[in-house]
Design goal:
Blueprint lengths: L12 H6 L9 H9 L3 E5 L6 H12 L26 H4 L7 E5 L8 H18 L13 H8 L5 H5 L1 H13 L3 E6 L3 H9 L2 H17 L4 E8 L15 E4 L14 H10 L6 H8 L2 E3 L2 E3 L2 H11 L18 H9 L2 H11 L4 E4 L15 H8 L4 E8 L2 E7 L3 H20 L4 H9 L2 H14 L8 H12 L5 E5 L2 E2 L2 E2 L2 E5 L6 E8 L6 H14 L4 H5 L5 E9 L2 E8 L9
Length: 572
């Protein structure tokens, strides 16, 4: 069997086929596209779910493949053996029959309006240059000067706003056929400009570009646009009555973005990784587009690439580094008590109910209500369990799709909590620990835990990690977790650098009954004594060792302490 390399980072269809990468055949999307016969289609999907590759595939299928010399470039051979070739002559009759305008805005991510606008101009100018040979036609003599100005990036802003319209008219004159317009990741400039503070200015340019190119363009055969969101309230698509939106809720095209379970199984089998399928399902499955179960394609490819040499490769969150996950931190930072409760419910494996709004606006994401939850749903952080109609409003039950996304939440919560602690006066907490002031320590811990978000289903590991973080940094002391000692491991110990001072052994317990906390704290101290968790500390020369038993229930705790050796001990 011929080995095909994994297409990690490959988003150009020609590159995919000519270099014989492993390709998950999505070409029947072309059949569905022709069957639906919509004038302008907007496909919204999360980042890294194959939008660019599909747009590239559509481009190579429809584009008239004559070069500037009029010679054929043989793009039809790219589809040999693929499913679209068996769909029927009524579909193949469209192959290579249209001039195509292809614009990608996925890299328009600059910090200033001037730099972002320049990137968009460069993308437009590149497409004009790709079709520059049409200017040799005598029929286009009157358009040459403007065409050259746009291509050389010297034109006025209004010319770039009308660039799609102008180029499609030129192409129709040359080919005698209307143009196909493909725009990939249209909303990246909008998201970037919102983050960087020049949203209104970028919105004006994108709106003008789309209105002229898509609304009243008689030289347009059809158009396809991709992005994460439908941004319609701001009137980007004003008056575009021929727009058909296909979101993750739509039953149309539901299988063409991302990998279906059978496609992932086939890939695992091809690369001899059948035993890894269950791991991939836990980490990268869980999305529902329409009614189809979908895996994150980027993460599947990356995991197989990394795990093939070593089948015991540990899964990780690849998607975390591919898109702006600051939105998760924004959700956490802006959450009130109700919002924190929702996040905790999701991280514990539960669900939340949200009213669905398809036409989200970047300017309204943080205005309250369900806007931020909707933004995160449509950009891939939640999956739909079910939806229903209540009056005229659509509601959906949402959950975290998989371990990969849960990891992103956990990491953002940890970082947020760490930053919160940096701004908090921790000296009262540290004094209470060293002074063995149980009442004060309880108050400090209860205040700290009330501010944070539980993300480990409130099990002992969660509290252990939080306490280790809180105790790290006490001057003159070293905090260590799960240290071998006596007949087992204590949860945590805190030892002074100087052995003449008092050391502490800590054991944690968790209960779901708040009235049991004191008993559990006493049980923790008995466990320290019975299993002699302090033995290694004493062997190491520490004369003064005290025990902490701390019991947690939700965001409350009970602290008990027992002094051994010198009852007073010594501290810094």
């Amino acid at each position: 069997m011929e080995y095909r390399p994994l297409p990690v980072g490959v988003s150009d269809f020609e590159d995919m086929i000519r270099n014989k990468y492993y390709y998950v055949d999505k070409t029947l999307m072309i059949r569905d596209f022709l069957d639906n016969k919509t004038k302008v289609t907007l496909f919204t999907r999360p980042r890294r779910f194959g939008k660019t590759l599909n747009m590239s595939m559509i481009k190579y299928f429809f584009e008239d493949d004559r070069d500037w010399k009029g010679e054929k470039r043989d793009w039809a051979c790219l589809f040999d053996g693929l499913r679209i070739m068996e769909a029927g002559e009524e579909y193949l009759a469209h192959m290579g029959q249209y001039p195509v305008i292809y614009l990608s805005f996925k890299d328009v991510k600059r910090k200033s309006l001037a730099e972002s606008y320049r990137q968009m101009v460069q993308a437009i100018a590149y497409e004009f240059a790709r079709h520059a040979f049409v200017m040799e036609s005598p029929a286009l003599a009157g358009e040459r000067d403007k065409y050259r100005e746009i291509m050389e990036e010297h034109a006025a802003e209004t010319d770039y706003e009308r660039a799609i319209l102008f180029l499609s008219r030129c192409l129709e004159k040359y080919y005698g056929k209307k143009a196909v317009v493909l725009i990939d990741e249209y909303d990246v400039p909008l998201e970037n400009s919102f983050t960087c503070g020049f949203y209104d200015e970028m919105l004006h340019f994108v709106r003008a570009l789309f209105e002229s190119g898509l609304k009243d363009n008689v030289s347009l055969e059809f158009a396809a646009i991709t992005g994460c969101l439908r941004v319609s309230r701001e009137s980007i698509f004003t008056g575009l009555n021929n727009l058909n939106m296909v979101s993750i809720r739509s039953l149309h095209y539901d299988e063409y973005f991302g990998f279906k379970p059978d496609e992932v199984r086939q890939m695992c089998h091809y690369y001899g990784m059948d035993d890894n399928y269950a791991t991939m399902k836990d980490w990268y499955d869980g999305y529902t587009f329409g009614q189809t179960d979908i895996y994150n394609p980027w993460s599947v490819l990356k995991y197989i690439f990394d795990a093939r040499p070593a089948k015991d490769w540990l899964p990780m969150s690849y998607w975390a580094n591919t898109s702006s996950n600051d939105i998760v931190r924004s959700l956490i930072e802006r959450a009130d008590e109700e919002g924190k409760g929702k996040i905790e419910e999701l991280l514990a494996g539960g669900t939340i109910e949200v009213q669905i709004h398809e036409d989200i606006t970047y300017s309204e994401i943080y205005d309250g209500g369900d806007s931020l939850w909707n933004f995160m749903f449509f950009t891939g952080y939640f999956r739909k369990i079910r939806e229903w109609l209540a009056g005229t409003a659509v509601y959906a039950e949402l959950a975290i799709p998989n371990k990969e996304v849960k990891y992103i939440f956990e990491q953002k919560i940890q970082k947020w909590f760490s930053d919160r602690l940096k701004g908090r006066d921790m000296q009262p907490f540290r004094n209470a620990v060293l002074d063995k002031d149980c009442e004060k320590l309880e108050d400090e811990l209860n205040d700290i835990f009330a501010e944070t978000i539980s993300y480990m289903d409130q099990n002992e590991y969660y509290y252990h990690g939080m306490m280790a973080g809180l105790l790290t940094g006490i001057k003159g002391y070293i905090a260590r977790s799960n240290r071998e000692g006596g007949k087992g491991r204590s949860d945590l110990y805190l030892k002074p650098v100087r052995r003449s001072r008092e050391a502490f052994v800590m054991e944690f317990k968790v209960t779901k009954v708040i009235g049991e906390m004191d008993a559990k704290a006493e049980e923790a101290i008995r466990q320290i004594e019975e299993k002699k968790y302090d033995l290694d500390l004493r062997k190491d020369g520490y004369r003064y060792v005290s025990y902490y038993g701390i019991a947690f229930c939700g965001k409350e705790c009970a602290v008990h302490c027992k002094s051994c050796g010198d009852a007073l001990g010594k501290r810094a």
